[in-house]
Every structure is written in C-alpha cells, then in structure tokens.
Automatic annotation (TrEMBL):
Key words, A-Z: Cell inner membrane, Cell membrane, Membrane, Methylation, Transmembrane, Transmembrane helix
Family under the similarity heading: Belongs to the GSP H family.
Name used for this protein in its record: Type II secretion system protein H
General secretion pathway GspH domain mapped to chain residues: 65-179
Coiled coil segments of this chain: none
SUPFAM superfamilies: Pili subunits
Subcellular location: Cell inner membrane
Chain segments annotated as transmembrane: 29-50
Organism the protein comes from: Pseudoxanthomonas gei
Origin: domain of life: Bacteria
NCBIfam families: IV_pilin_GFxxxE (TIGR02532)
Bilayer topology annotation: Single-pass membrane protein
C-alpha cells in the first residue's frame, strides 16, 4: 500500500481561499470610468441602428401579412369560383372607402358584385391592424379595394398599397391586372403619395 504525504501548511502561509488583508480587489475609479465611457459610446451608436432595424422589421412583417392575405383571396376566388374581395375594414363588418388599410382589412366572398359583404357568413377573414401606430397603410387613389375574379385576375387597374411613416414611403405592395402580387421596400426618402 502506497501512502501519499501531504506537505503540512506552514503557519505563515494562509490557505489559498483566504484573502489577505490589504490585497487589492475590485476596480479602480479610472477602470470604472473607461468602462462606462465605452458602454456609453456603444449605446449612442447602437440604439439608432436598432430602432431602424425594428422599423424595417415592422414594415416587412406588415407587407408579408398583406401579401399573404391577398394571395389567399386569389386562391379562394379560383378554388370556389366566386369573386373574392380584400378591402380596408371599417371595424364594423364593412369596407372603408377612403383606402386607409391601417385599421385592418376584410376578405369576403362577393357573389353579387356589390363590393361589400352581404352577410356575416360571407366574411372569410377580418384582420386587425398588425402594425405599429406610427405606420400607415394606404391604397392608391381611386382603388380602395382589391377584387379577384373566379379566374384569378384582378379586375380593374393595378392597385398599390403603400406603407408609410410621417409621409415617407417605406414599402409598397402592388397587384397587377393578372392578379400577381409583388412587394418592394423603400429607403424612406420618397414621399408617400398616391
């Protein structure tokens, strides 16, 4: 049997877990000031970039949701062979006529062609506004709603739905006469005009 001998601690040497009196621990005032200065510079540079990133994400998210509902309306019109409309909601089960989509939108069957839901059963979707209150969604003048025919075409002229903040254009969703949907983002340097 082999025995291991541990060297006894000298009475003058404290164990390693004991901190000696007078030993320096913590930060000096200069180290603390340099750390705070670096943190402040990082915040000054990072916060505006982060706010821009959040705004771009809101615009992209709203554009994707809007294009998904428009594509769903097209597929529904083709599948059921019934004209289907997507319009800005007046939050009472009808369509707004001013082209302001900021409060949400409706998707409904429009078998009689009057461009408004006749019964609650005709409404397929009633989407609340998924965006930040600072963003506005506006359709092109003279075209407040999108109507798909049973063959998938969009009746009438092209419709452009713009996403804006403080009268600056951030993104656009465009539907042509054939019914194809495309979206594009903008740098925010163009005015939001219809």
């Amino acid at each position: 049997m082999c025995r291991t001998h541990l060297a006894p601690l000298s009475p003058l040497t404290p164990p390693p877990w004991v901190v000696r009196r007078g030993a320096r621990t913590g930060f000096s005032l200069l180290e603390l000031m340099v750390t705070l200065a670096i943190a402040c510079i990082g915040l000054v540079i990072g916060v505006p970039s982060y706010q821009g990133l959040v705004e771009r994400q809101r615009v992209t998210s709203a554009m994707h949701l809007l294009t998904a509902h428009m594509a769903s309306a097209r597929i529904t019109a083709i599948t059921y062979r019934i004209p289907t409309v997507v319009c800005p909601s007046d939050r009472a089960g009808g369509c707004r006529q001013d082209g302001d989509w900021s409060h949400g939108w409706l998707m409904f069957f429009d078998a009689d062609g009057n461009r408004s839901p006749d019964a609650r059963e005709d409404i397929l979707r009633d989407e609340n506004a998924p965006i930040h209150p600072s963003l506005r969604i506006l359709s092109s003048s003279g075209r407040p709603q999108l109507r798909y025919l049973p063959d998938g075409r969009s009746a009438g002229s092209n419709i452009s739905v713009r996403l804006c903040r403080e009268d600056m254009l951030l993104g656009t969703v465009i539907v042509n006469n054939v019914g194809r949907i495309r979206s594009e983002t903008s740098s925010g340097h163009r005015p939001c005009q219809g």
